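Predict the 3D structure for this chain.
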Amino acid sequence: MPFNKLKLAEMTAESEEYLDIGSIAKRLEVVNRTIERLIEKFAKKLKKSRRRQGRKILYLWSDVLQCAKIHTRVEIESIPSVAIKKAYTKQRVRELQAEVERLKHEKSNQLKSEQMG
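Done. Predicted structure below.
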C-alpha cells in the first residue's frame, strides 16, 4: 500500500510520543509490512529513537514521520548535494586565503612600525 503523499505532507508531530508499528500504520493509513520496511530502510536513524514496552518496540513518532516523508520524497534529507559542497569548499578556500593575505600584510606592517620606532 503506497503512502498518501498529500496527507503525509500535512502531518506534523506536536509532542514526544512513542508508538508501535500498528499505531504508526493506522496513522499513515498503510499496512504494517510497509512500516516494517520503512523501519528496516531507516534502521540506523531510528535505532536511537526507540524504546521497549514489554515485547513491543516503540518508535518516536516525529522521527518515523520524518523518515516516511524522506522516503516518499515529500521532504529531502538535510544532506547537501555534491555541487553545493564543492561550491562551499571553494568559497571557504578563497575566504581563508584572503584571511592569510590580510594577516601577512598586518604582520609586515607591524614589523615595519617596530623597526622605525
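The mean pLDDT is 87.
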